[in-house]
What does this fold into?
Amino acid sequence: MASEKDAALADVPSDSPTIFDKIINKEIPANVVFEDDKVLAFRDIAPQAPTHILLIPKVKDGLTGLSKAEERHSEILGHLLYTAKVVAKQEGLEEGFRIVINDGPNGGQSVDHIHVHVLGGRQMNWPPG
It folds into this structure.
């Protein structure tokens, strides 16, 4: 099985449907921990911390990665970060948590649908990467 790094480097960016679109459309299952009209949050299938949640916007609207963000995306970007805080609290991460947004192949992005990682439940190291 290819590593996340290999998957990111092999990825050809596109606006085509992704695995996240299939999760949103309930075509494939996910362990959902939060959902509202704009965002879906679910547990990562390859967790990098005791708590590892992915948050995705339900409507991609061309926002495949943070580098593709336009002013019109400001509201959903803010909502993703606010929802990360809500989910962290819900998950009991009072001692702290890390937010990660990978962007592009060198940033480790392997799915062309912007997503926020919420990682917690252990001491995070610095520098990351």
In short: The chain has three helices and five strands.
